[in-house]
Specification:
heterodimer; A: 385 residues; alpha+beta; 12-stranded mixed β-sheet; two-stranded antiparallel ribbon; 14 helices; 17% strand; B: 236 residues; alpha/beta; Rossmann fold; 6-stranded mixed β-sheet; 4-stranded antiparallel β-sheet
Chain lengths: 385, 236
């Protein structure tokens, strides 16, 4: 018999009640893991984006294009290292439900800009020579079974070719991976020139410009200079850091982080009530036994720790099972959701938060019953037994 | 009447001018009034009297699980009222063994684990705790019931586990509150035999509250209470 053995034995004196409480905690922490991964999918990547790049879009929004000539004008500004471009083509494979991000980028400037996107040098060399070449993410390649050298027909939801067809034949030149989890491996990158020569509208325009800064601390000043450069023109710009852009883009979906936090808080509050009720009943039923423990020499503090320990043991056991299954569920879901939520994963940080929440929950739920047990008068408890 | 002249051996417990007053519904009730009592080491003392006469209250005061309203209780020369709650808990763990009428065993633990409970406070390693608990159970005649849970034991066996739990730390005094009150005559006699053996052969000082004259005759002496005062005593 040990103190922890005593706590464990006490938990199982009412098996049904303990199992039901454990199940509640278990389900709550599975839910916590899935919601944490969902939150990560929407907002987590933003934290990983650096401040060394600016993004310039049309002042009225992303759907309005900007002249490609802006690239050279921005490049001439003080504090700018280089400028790259991007055009959103809204791709899909065969049917719109097979959504595949399709982006037209300039030859090698884009990949020079994004060192987080890793393409084997020999594949990059091939891509630069192939007009219809495409660099695809490793997730797309794995899911579709595509490999380097394959020719695949991707359709654009925006741009048609002069022939009237919206199918763009692409030869896969390379497959990229990423070195930063803020980036996904779901996109397909094609040459801007290939798009621009063949599309029926929007020639010589881009969706956005990416500006690499000499000094990230000068971001605000350079952004202001860029927007000032095109002020009062027919196509005014709005320049922000990539991080700010990602945050504002995420907020268009709704404040997912806050929603998830509210749901998790509500679930944990319910758990607090459930566990506190369980512990309250357990202590109430054992009033005489706790008094006996005190009589045989357990101090008030011993009894306090005994009840708190039971509450912690119950909560941590349920939470460990829940977080364990939650992790497995997230891993499984991540594989299935990678196309839509590439950043869906249960992070180590979320795991640590989960453990901290379980600890807090156990302590909070056990605090009142433990304090009651500690203050209990032995004589009264024994007399009422 | 007081008992202070009855001491012939080393005094283990000395109660001096003990008064205990409860408040119930705005009314003060005197349970003990100026009680004087000495319990020599090795004594086997029975406390008798009608319900509410103060005998259980006195037992609780001697055991340090209740505080006197006034007066002093000394245990081996140490005043209990000078100890705080933590000190009292440590003192109880070391010096006092309680035996309750209702056993109060923990139902989910085996007899062995129940007896080990007081040893959790001692710092003995697990093997030593198990050895001592087994020895205590053997002493009360339950060596073959160590793995049984209370529900698998008879009332008398449960009480014997309660006795083993009380003696496992080798306390100086055993405080028994109606130890046979919930047992049939045969099982009660077995417990009383055990208490007599603990007193006679192992030198344990015992104070036992009882309503049962049949139990009281097993003690070396009996004190009678009425309305919070000692009214008479009888030596066996």
């Amino acid at each position: 018999m040990t103190t922890s053995g005593l706590m464990w034995a006490n938990l199982w004196r009412r098996k049904t009640r303990t199992v039901v409480t454990l199940l509640s905690i278990f389900v709550a922490f599975v839910l916590f893991a899935v919601l944490a991964a969902t939150r990560q999918a929407f907002v987590g990547g933003v934290d990983l984006i650096g401040n060394e790049r600016l993004l310039t879009i049309h002042k009225s929004g992303l759907i309005f294009a900007l002249p490609i000539s802006y690239r050279n004008r921005i490049a001439s500004l003080d504090g700018v290292v280089s400028v790259s471009i991007g055009v959103w083509m809204q791709g899909y494979f065969q049917e719109p439900k097979n959504f595949t991000p399709l982006i037209a980028v300039d030859n090698d400037a884009y990949f020079q800009m994004y060192r987080e996107i890793a393409v084997p040098p020999e594949q990059m060399a091939v891509w630069q020579k192939e007009r219809t070449g495409a660099i695809i993410g490793k997730s797309v390649a794995a899911r579709r079974g595509w490999k380097v050298g394959d020719t695949v027909p991707l359709r654009s939801g925006i741009y048609r070719r002069e022939s009237g067809d919206n199918t763009w034949e692409l030869k896969i030149s390379g497959i990229y991976d990423v070195t930063n989890k803020a980036f996904d491996t779901e996109s397909v990158m094609v040459h801007f020139d290939y798009l621009d020569e063949a599309r029926t509208f929007g020639r010589d325009t881009v969706g956005w410009l990416i500006v690499k800064l000499k000094d990230p601390s000068q971001a605000a000043r350079v952004a202001k200079d860029i927007d000032a450069l095109f002020a009062n023109s027919p196509r005014e710009t709005k320049t922000t850091s990539e991080k700010a852009f990602a945050e504002s883009f995420t907020s268009q979906v709704g404040d997912v982080g806050a929603i998830v936090t509210y749901v998790v808080s509500a679930v944990l509050l319910s758990m607090l009530i459930v566990i506190a009720s369980t512990m309250g009943q357990a202590v109430h039923e054992r009033t005489a036994e706790l008094a006996v423990l005190k009589a045989i020499g357990f101090s008030a503090r011993n009894v306090l720790f005994l009840v708190l320990g039971e509450s912690l043991l119950l909560t941590m056991f349920g939470a460990a099972l829940g977080l364990g299954l939650g992790y497995t569920v997230c891993r499984t879901l991540a594989g299935q959701l990678t196309q839509y939520m590439p950043a869906f994963w249960f992070t180590t940080e979320a795991l640590l938060i989960g453990i901290a929440l379980a600890l807090s929950l156990g302590l909070l739920a056990g605090a009142w019953p433990a304090a009651r047990a500690m203050r209990m008068r032995m004589v009264d408890a024994l007399r009422e037994a | 009447m007081n008992d202070s002249n009855a001491v012939t051996a080393e005094t283990l417990v000395r109660a001096s001018g003990i008064t205990k007053t409860y408040r119930r519904g705005g009314e003060s009730i005197n349970v003990l009034s100026g009680l004087m009592l000495d319990v020599p080491r090795g004594d086997f003392l029975a406390l008798m009297g009608p319900s509410g006469s103060g005998k259980s209250t006195l037992l609780n005061l001697i055991g340090g699980i209740d505080r006197a309203t006034s007066g002093s209780i000394e245990f081996a020369g140490r005043r209990l009222e000078d100890m705080n709650e933590s000190e009292l808990a440590r003192w109880r763990a070391r010096h006092v063994g309680f035996i309750f009428q209702m056993h109060h065993l923990l139902p989910m633990l085996t007899a062995q684990d129940n007896v080990e409970l007081p040893l959790l406070l001692t710092g003995f390693p697990g093997a030593e705790r198990r050895r001592r608990a087994a020895a205590a159970l053997k002493l009360v005649g339950l060596a073959d019931r160590v793995k049984h849970k209370p529900a698998e034991l008879s009332g008398g066996q449960e009480q014997r586990v309660g006795v083993a739990r009380a003696i496992v730390t080798d306390p100086d005094i055993l405080l028994c509150d109606e130890p046979t009150g919930d047992l049939d005559r045969k099982a009660g006699d077995a417990i009383l035999d055990l208490l007599q053996a603990l007193n006679g052969e192992h030198g344990k000082t015992i104070v036992m509250v009882t309503h049962d004259p049949h139990a009281a005759v097993r003690a070396k002496r009996t004190l009678y209470f009425d309305q919070g005062v000692l009214v008479t005593q009888a030596a066996m």
